[in-house]
Amino acid sequence: MDTQKGMHSAEHLSIKLLKAVLLCACTLGVLLSLVQVFLDAHLSNADIDRKAREMLAMIHDPASRAAYRLDTDMGQEVLNGLLEMKSVQMAAIHLDDTSKLARVERPIFASRYRLLSDYIFDPIRIYRQPLYSNEPEKEHFGELILSIDTAYEGKAFIQRSVVVIFAGIIRAIAMALLMYLICSTLLTRPMNRLIRHLSSIDPEEPGQQQLPVPEGNENNELGLWVRTANKLLTSINYHQSLRQKAEARIMRLSQYDYLTRLPNRRTLQKQINTFIQKAAKKHENIAILCLGLDDFKSLNAQVNFNAAEHILVKVSDRLRNCIGNKAYIGRLGEDQFAIIQSKIEQPYEAAEMAQSLIKQLDRPFEINGEQLTISATVGITLFPDDGEDVDTLLQQAEFAMIMAKSRSHNRYQFYVATIDTEIRQRKRLEMDLRQALEKRELSLAFQPQFNYQKGELVGAEALLRWNHPEKGLISPDMFIPMAEHSLDIIPIGNWVLENACQQLNKWHLDGHQNLRMAVNLSTIQLQDQNIADRIAFLLNKYQVPPETLELEVTETSIIDDLEASKAQLQNMKSIGVTLALDDFGTGYSSLGYLKQFPFDKIKIDKSFVEDLPDNRENCGIVEAIVQIGKSFGLKVLAEGVETVEQATYLAEKGCQEGQGYYYGKPLSAHDFISLISSQRVLSSNTQEKAGNHEAQGDNND
Ligand code: C2E
Ligand code: CA
Ligand code: CA
Question: For 265-415, which CATH superfamily applies?
Fold first, then answer.
């Protein structure tokens, strides 16, 4: 339709055809008419001559007789008869002596056709006929002269010619119109219909609507044209759909994560940008949550690659289901996701979202029949408070997440501008820590451990101290995770082990042969393949009896890789050192592994010792742990003993050892030995109670 509208009427094929046919037909008609006229002129010409000769022949005899007799009257009468013919202009009989016998004449015919007819036929034609006497003399005695006016014949000729030419032209026009009608019926109209169809075809799906073959044209060129065009449309459609599919695929690949089908980092950035622009206009807030899976790397090592990918997909499904249409989620990287919460009014909405995301991962994941627990940590940044552009916001959310992870897992943290400085300070501190060993800023403090049965201090836990030249004493809770992160914990841990052994040897040599030293081992150290050899070497170097060295490991450090830790612990155990499970109750508290691991001692975390014996819950926990220790044949030591009530209660319940401010804070080596020497007997009271309990326990057995 549009195509037709767009056509100027002069551009219609039918009009063009009509013009051409008309021109040709008219030219041809005129030409044919002219030929006809020409022939007619020729015939008329001959006719004039023929008629004149007939006239001459007709009057020859009477004219001869009149001339012979020299009878002027007779001659005049004969010639008058000739004048009956309109075309005769003049007739005369001349005698040999050049005298005229008779003559008739009339004026020339004044015809308006003369101009043309004179040109074709000459105005007057003169005919002469000699006059002879009868046979046999055949004597010549005069001449008959006839002058014919051609205008009469000319007029008839021109009138005929006009009719012929007009008839020719009209015939040609009629033929042309007929041809035009035929052509337009057979060609132009079906073509117009095709054009209408063509323009109604959807260019997006050209193959959906086929052109109809015009009726009666199935087997001619028009039919062939339509079939060819239809084939072309179908093939365009096919190729177009192939291209569209390819384009869609490329789009998907470039915008979405291949594994989880979530928007990828680039798409996320774009999306955040759009959200930011909208929010800036409407003065709204946006929260960007960066969720990182905890310990995904160790999980990756634990299960195979496919299983890890499978977990990622399941995690992303849970997160997606959790946020529904309340937020936008994408995958930032291997084990990181970003969630954008637009139109939030208060930061707590983001915190709630973070909490519900973390909670989503509470339920364990089942992979290959195994139950795996995965936790996540979330960093939150707010637009426009924390930053105004995509990169800053994303970066800060990631920072906040990393910061949160370095404190503890499975939690969320907001980005605040101070985190930036915190991170800088942390980096600075990390660098300082690297040099702390060389600069001799590290030292050990020794916290006494008390045995309830013996009623005396039996050993110490070596606790690392860092005396920073500017910041003073820095808590191990702060710098140990940093050292673990940078792997500096290996040289630092070795230094601790060496100094502890050296110190223990000194005490032994000073007469305190029974003293025992407990040393903390970090997760990273536990993964160190040389650790057992290193310990054996140090025991040998400082002549320390292996059973006087106790190594403390936490639940969290062995749970990362159960099999490897088991092997490592067994290696150490085979040297003869004793093993203690530190912070018991704070981690996974799964007793299954207790049996598999060669521990000698459980250390009850100080959070369970708080408020004993008033806190009913803690009482229950402590009693249960003591019971477990008994059934697994493990000693139980309680940490964080600060009061006599706690000490009495613990001794009463069967706890073998205690450690805490009640017995002594972490002390220097010198102070520790002074304490040992001065407090040989601390509380006979507690010793008594412990003794009673021991007796009861024996009876029960
Ligand atoms: P931990 O192994 O659980 O050490 C016990 C922590 O509890 C020590 O903190 C100690 O000072 C504190 N403590 C002892 N008695 C009491 C008490 O009665 N009340 C209270 N409130 N606290 C008490 P510290 O020295 O700050 O050590 C913190 C953590 O740093 C340790 O926890 C341990 O995990 C780590 N750590 C310390 N030294 C080393 C080391 O040489 N190597 C490794 N890998 N970690 C170490
Ligand atoms: Ca410890
Ligand atoms: Ca502890």
Answer: Reverse transcriptase/Diguanylate cyclase domain (3.30.70.270)
